[in-house]
Amino acid sequence: MQLENCYWLTLKHIPRRLMRKPVPLSSVCMRFDIVTIFPGFFTSFFENGILRRALAEGLVTVDVHDLRAFTHDRHRTVDDRPFGGGEGMVLKPAPLAEALASLGIAPKAERLCQGTTSVVPQELQKEGGASAPEGMLAGDPAPSPRDRVILLSAQGRPFTQAMARELAALDRVVLLCGRYEGVDERINEIYCDMELSIGDYVLSGGELAAAVVVDAVMRLLPGALGNEASSEFESFGVADAEIDTDVVGVPRSQYGAGGLLDYPHYTRPAEFAGLRVPETLLNGDHHGIRLWRREQQLRKTLANRPDLLEHAALSKEDRKLLDAIRLETEKQGPGTRD
Ligand code: SAH
Question: In terms of pTM, does the model score above 0.90?
Fold first, then answer.
């Protein structure tokens, strides 16, 4: 693994033409490193949509590292049988530790002592070396103390939009993808700041989970979405504590998701398969549209994710509306939805 290549925006799996120019680490908004035994998994993921644009514009860098590059045997072995017996194989600790060291990631204990979560890789510590970052001297801590090493794991804390927002404020996130029965637990103990699960189900590898995390975090970075406001006003948008829930009339929370699910969206044609777009959306009454959308958010959240209502920013009007919807649902009887 060429460390020089890791330092510059060099995505081994992204066509060169997608990148305008190399972006020096110091000016990069956010950096992801993904350690995996299937680097090819990410190829098409990088070539589409918002991520492709964010990469091309240097808002984010994603470097994929092949775990097998850190093995030393002829078969490039990354797994071994579990101690204590049982099904499946376990990812060996040594290649993972070596991969992390090559990324400048020290054990947690050392990072805490240094007051930083990463150190400059040996190869980058050469004073005045060709690849040394601007202003960085030998032995300096890495320039971004806001780093996290994350193990993707079904046993992890649930990944949520709130967590995506937390990660989007960091400089660097290193994602370790497990396979087989998982990763030798000592890697978690020694290096990982947290274990993250993308849901209560078991995947065959951490790659999909890593892609989910990169996607959810990257789209929150300033400039990633065309409209800056759009990530606030969608499902799980900030439950704004500032919202005055006792305001009579149209509450401020009408204008954002406020911790609720998004409202339904429609586009042309106005009539499709015999179904017409709700009239309110066609008549240009913006106040009416906001009220309709808010009601739909409440309906959808009550039907699909009632647990979210506990922490949502709800106005007096919202609560009245919810009561009315509940009453209506009760009248309609069991088995009915919004
Ligand atoms: N024995 C484990 C499952 C291993 S699945 C268990 O019962 O918990 C193999 C790998 O897939 C894991 O190491 C992890 O990296 C990834 N993985 C599986 N499910 C996941 C989930 N819900 N979220 C994040 N990663 C997951």
Answer: no
